[in-house]
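Entry:
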Amino acid sequence: MNSTVRHLLFLPFFVLCAISAFAADQTERIAPPQSNILVPDEVRSQIESGLHELATEIENAEQATASKPELHELLPDVIIFQKAADWALRYNEFYSTNEFRVASKLIDEGIERAKQLQAGIAPWTEATGLAVRGYRSRVDDSVQPYGVVVPKDWRKGTAQKFRLDVWLHGRDDRLTELKFINQRQRSYGEFAPADAFVLHPYGRNCNAFKFAGETDVFEGMEAMRKHYPIDDSRIAIRGFSMGGGGTWHLAAHYPGVWVAAAPGAGFSESAEYLGKFKQEPYPPKWEQTLWGLYDATDYALNFFNLPVVAYNGNLDKQKQAADMMEAAMLREGMHLSRVIGNNVAHKYTPLAKEQLADKIDPIVRAGKAMIPHEVRFATRTLRYAQSHWVVVEGLEHQWQPARVEAVIVSPNAIDLTTTNVSAIRLQFGPGESPVPPGESAEVRLDGQSIRIAGPDSDFSLNVAFHRDGGKWLAGDFNSAQLRKRPGLAGPIDDVFLDSFLMVPPTGKGYHDETDKWVDRELNWMRTNWRGLFRGDAPEKAAADITDEDIASHSLILWGDPQSNPLIKRVLEKLPLKWDAQTVSFGDQSFSAADHLPVMIFPNPLNPTKYVVLNSGFTFRAMGSNADQTPKLPDYAIIDVTKPATGIAPGGVEVAGFFDEEWRLN
């Protein structure tokens, strides 16, 4: 466990309250909203006493399992109960008096699990039916809960692999850990096939499974694979309402992961769903461009390799999501399969659930083709770069439509046709190579023929190609060349899908006005990361940053070159000029007295990770989940004298995207 997190976890509760009062909430938070429920003194005392006992038992369990890795890694299964009750009390997140009883119940369950770990057992890991478990996230080192439905005929140690259904929940701005865990201990959900495990991700509260909520789904799946026998060829994704929107998103962007997708209602794009075309003023050009990050309609081609069945009630306004996807898929020559609930709005009917099962279950039983002979893939960004054995590793122009059509013509011939692609990889795992051992193959890229060697001795095949002067060549781009690539392509919000570390200023900056803005925005990020993404945004002083930190995390640097020594250290290698008088991007300059840069860029100290200047996540309000999209591109200059709005932390003087080699356009 991270030493700082461990230290905070076992502090006395009244000290934690003092810390939160000092560090948190002078800033309006996005979610969950502050509760108006008054916690009676006797109830507060009881919960505090229980939390003290639970913290002690967790510490004892940590010590008892220190030399037993298989038990030590189960500590998050206990800490989820501590966090649920602790945060509800600390941050005023009790929304009914019934939740006082729930908090006490969860504390008791945490104490029981902690004592069981001390005794060297973990019976909940062998239980069938409903279970709630936890994992520690790589994003911010927070402990996150997830719900599981375990089939009744499963036994620990069995060699049989099981189907997994991932279910994405609907919107609930008040879905705290306390409420989520209580629900997952009481309800099997809309669908619980007898032969399947069902994963219920928490999704970091209420963000339509985007940003850290997206990572939560995959970290939950990683945890499931670690603890249960999951068949990777039979993982389906479903969801309803906000979860339907999340299903459209994750299915369209990760088509090679799932055997089938079944979105219910929700939204599939932003502009039409939100009526943006009718709004004044119209969103800025960069925001329109960034709708292409999450709009499933832009990725409709990817359903060529993924069966999808959409549901909505015939009276539901959210049928618009499937209408939009039906039109987008039709443009790609595909017809969307739909189930409609009669005479209902925003819910399933019993008949519709049967019809969905009749369509989805046979697909899942058959399993997906692990190596489909033909792959069709569309993307607009290298954040979403893979379908099955095709990996796009470079685009000619980020945010423009890119397409790949790849066909295994024969064991010795693979044809690829591309649009807006500058680098591509064919990636076949052990035992998956279509090319026989000892033989070579011809890869035809946009009509150009390149001969490749056959597979390795484990029958894996991994070959890369890149464009140079309009010609395809075998091999990767020069690794020393700074380029946008998968996981390193912006925009600013891209940093929040993986591990990050915030570095606050250590002293006074160039100007009081910009210092005040930095302090306000840093506190906004602290408060709202905790509120919406349900973790404490990790921080470390500049003087304490180690080489290991630089190797392991993207860094978010707050302040200016005078107040933050790390900004001063990297500034020379950023496409930015900045001193006490002027902030300049290219040929545009602004007064440093009332302007600050926000941006994302490969960290000059470790170009495999990001460095971000002066920015948290960039949407500013809860609103519709469909509007939780990036509001700033790769860089911007902010006028700190102007107030924050729904689209930016202040007045945006200039904003834009770096090109494919991270240069200013």
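The mean pLDDT is 94.
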